[in-house]
Amino acid sequence: MKATGRQRKRRMARRALLQVLYEVDSSGHSVEDSLNWVLEQLSLDEESVAFVKAIVNGVVQHRQELDGEIHRYAPTWPVSQLPVVDRNILRIAIYEILMSQETPPKVAINEAVELAKQFGGENLSSFVNGVLGAVMQTVASEKT
Q1: Ramachandran category for residue 116: left, alpha or beta (phi over 0 → left; psi -120 to 50 → alpha)
Q2: What's the DSSP call for residue 21?
Q3: If you ran DSSP here, which 8-state letter would residue 62 be given?
Q4: Neighbours of 87 (CB within 10 A)
Q5: Per-residue confidence of the chain (144 residues) as pLDDT tens digits?
Q6: By the 8 A CB rule, do 88 and 63 touch?
Q7: Between vectors from CA 22 to CA 73 and to CA 98, what angle results, nearest 5°?
Q8: Domain segments of the chain: what residues?
Q9: 5-143: what CATH class?
Q10: ∠50-13-106 over CA atoms, to 5°?
Q11: If you write DSSP's letter for every residue of 67-133 in order, what string do you get?
């Protein structure tokens, strides 16, 4: 199944999200500087830029809570010891699943797995899928 134009734009936006969060996490640059730098390098439409800014700001604002969720679902992997890419892929997806109403949870998981395949180590996509699957099980059980 081919991705639609909107899906391709969102995938590019999520790559930008990961770049911004990676830079903030690894370099200590400000969110604003990192956002500006990444967005200057890419040609995203207005909707994608707004999406990137909203999710980046949400992830940064809720980082402690998101890291708590990562710890809850992957307790044997201290968040501070996870590679920067890994923890930020999880932060993005968990934010989208638990806090953002914009993205269907299954889409957030699929996109996180795709980012993991593209930017992570060979086992990252399985790890991400497992952690996010556990998040979804909890969300589903809390709704019933």
Answers
A1: alpha
A2: H
A3: T
A4: 23
A5: 556 778 888 999 999 999 999 999 999 889 999 999 999 998 899 999 999 999 999 999 999 999 999 999 999 989 999 999 999 999 999 999 999 988 899 999 999 999 999 998 889 999 999 999 999 998 888 776
A6: no
A7: 35
A8: 5-143
A9: mainly alpha
A10: 105
A11: HHHHHHH-TTS-GGGS-HHHHHHHHHHHHHHHT-SSS-HHHHHHHHHHHHHHHS-TTHHHHHHHHHH
Tokens of 14: 């999520």
> Could you tell me the CA-to-CA distances from 30 to 17, 26, 80, 82, 97 in Å, in that order?
14, 11, 19, 21, 25
Q: Quick count: other Cβ atoms within 10 Å of Cβ 74?
A: 19
Amino acid (1-letter code) at residue 100: S
Q: Which amino acid is at 5?
A: G
